[in-house]
Amino acid sequence: MEITNRQTRPRSNLSWALTVIVAVIALIVGALGESLVAPAVGPALVTAQDVASSVITSLTTRATSAVVPPLTGSSSQAPAATSSATGSASAERSATAAQQAVAAPESEPYVAVVQKAGPAVVTVVNQLPPQPSFFGQIAQPEALGSGVIIDKDGHIVTNNHVVAGGSKFQVIFSDGRKVAATLVGRDALSDIAVLKVDGPVPAVATFGDSSKLQPGEIVVAIGSALGDFRNTVTHGIVSGLDRTLSDPTGPSLSGLIQTDAPINHGNSGGPLLNLQGQVIGINTAVVRGSGIGSDVAEGLGFAIPSNTVKTIADELIKNGYVVRPYLGVNWQPVTPQIASYYGLEVNAGALIQAVVPGSPASTAGLRPGDVVTAVAGTKIDDQHDFATLLLNHKVGDSVQLTIQRGHQSLTVTATLGQRPQSAQ
Predict the structure, then answer these.
(1) How far apart are CA 319 and CA 193, in angstroms?
(2) Beta-strand runs (E) in 188-268
(3) Of 146, 187, 190, 191, which one is the catalytic site residue?
(4) Does residue 359 form part of some domain?
(5) Structural domain span for residue 48
(6) What is the pLDDT of residues 268-321, one digit of tens each?
(7) Tally of CB atoms within 10 A around 377
């Protein structure tokens, strides 16, 4: 059986074509009455039979070609064309092989990272309380994020804002299986939460040491982009370390890893990985711009360092909450506008609005209207907010607070208590 395709032809057609070509060549040579010129290696006479033999040889060795080289000029032209085509094909194959050799080492590390850590990444489904829709129907809204399995017991780390407000939770494994999950604990101040699933888990991720990260280091992010595209993989570099994201309504997120790895809605709670496939951060936020009319930023993603994540997760698994220091005040940050409105003597600090009776702040003598300007000697400013400075201390620590009371600058000492669970 003969197989015909674009490059090869049936043998009977080839024989017929050769016969016609040989006949035409013989007539041309006979009409010229002259010998053709041989290759430039010395004079030689070429007969019609020689030319026909050369053409046959050329066509035989180039059975995949439908083009016959012209017979005007040197009889070496047909073989030369064959050699040129063969050399060109060989060069193309060499170039392709070289490109593959260059590309392989470039992509292989990412593949290894995904193969190692990918099965431990999950989609987190937060089933929010039912709400009436515009048409009076009861809707069951959902919030979707990502998470990563951290032990064989089924504990999963994610962001607090992924599980906030939820009453029922599910996780979807990388293989598509969906299982129920329970909330072990969450910590709004660090934006970390821990869920737990029962039964076997497909894989467990390992933590790396985030303190060893260097700017420029390659990182990989895995998560459920937009909530629908499970285990989406992106990569980038560590763009910066020890970044702070301010929150006017509460403590800032500090010590963050900045990365240009693309992070989308739904990636929150997913892992940021090094090239060893270790979790070196939990993706938590992306900044697009600072407000209406501001420049649009690209590649500004932030992750909570793994060393912080591990510490918080261990406490949540052990206690269900994180033990934190407590002062016992309600406050708001002082801005130039706030200072002007209230007639304050300072333009930065924490304006005390209320003091909880019996709290460490009450015992220390703080009053509503006081402005705390420094904690343990560190001034409160855009890079050091009041709550974060307090959180740098432990329960039982005695901390000096510099305050502005009217026209007076005072220093008081407060012994920090334990933050009530209701305030977590």
Answers:
(1) 13
(2) 192-196, 218-225, 229-245, 253-259
(3) 191
(4) yes
(5) 11-75
(6) 999 999 999 999 999 999 887 655 555 666 778 999 999 999 999 999 999 999
(7) 9
Task: Give the H or E element holding residue 79.
Answer: helix 77-117
List of residues 6+ apart from 229 with CB closer than 8 A: 266
Considering the domain architecture, whether residues 301 and 353 belong to the same structural domain is answered as no
Q: For the whole model, what pTM was predicted?
A: 0.64
Catalytic residue from among 210, 239, 254, 268: 268
Stretch among 40-44, 146-150, 392-396 having the lowest mean pLDDT:
40-44
> Is residue 268 among the annotated active site residues?
yes
For the record, the structure tokens of 260 come out as: 């240009």
- Find the range with the poorest average confidence among 22-26, 112-116, 167-171, 188-192: 22-26
pLDDT band of 254, cuts 50, 70, 90: confident
- Asked whether residue 191 is domain-assigned, the answer is no
Q: Are residues 268 and 299 in the same domain?
A: yes
Q: Which helix (H) or strand (E) holds 21?
A: helix 11-32
Tokens standing for residue 53: 């033999």
Residue 400 lies in a domain: yes
Same domain, 329 and 251: no
19 Rama class: left (phi>0) / alpha (psi -120 to 50) / beta? alpha
107 located within any domain: no
Overall residue count recorded for the chain in this entry? 424
Tally the domains of the chain.
3
State whether residue 45 is helix, strand or coil: strand
Catalytic residue among 155, 161, 254, 306: 161
User: What's the distance, CA 203 to chain centroid?
Assistant: 20
Output the CA torsion sign for 257, 261, 266, 271: negative
The answer to whether residues 126 and 162 touch, using CB atoms and an 8 Å cutoff, is yes
> Would you call 133 a catalytic residue per the annotation?
no
Burial class (CB in 10 A: 0-12, 13-18, 19+), 376: middle
- Per DSSP, helices labelled H in 343-419 are 360-364, 386-391
pLDDT at 96 over 80: no
What CATH number has the domain bearing residue 387?
2.30.42.10
Q: Which two tokens stand for residue 215?
A: 């700017």
Confidence of residue 137 (pLDDT cuts 50, 70, 90): low
- For 212, residues 6+ apart whose C-beta sits below 8 A from its C-beta are none
DSSP 6: S
Let me know if 242 is a catalytic residue: no
Are 146 and 268 spatial neighbours (Cβ–Cβ below 8 Å)?
A: yes
Domain boundary among 27, 49, 75: 75
Q: Of 245, 278, 310, which one is at a domain's C-terminal end?
A: 310
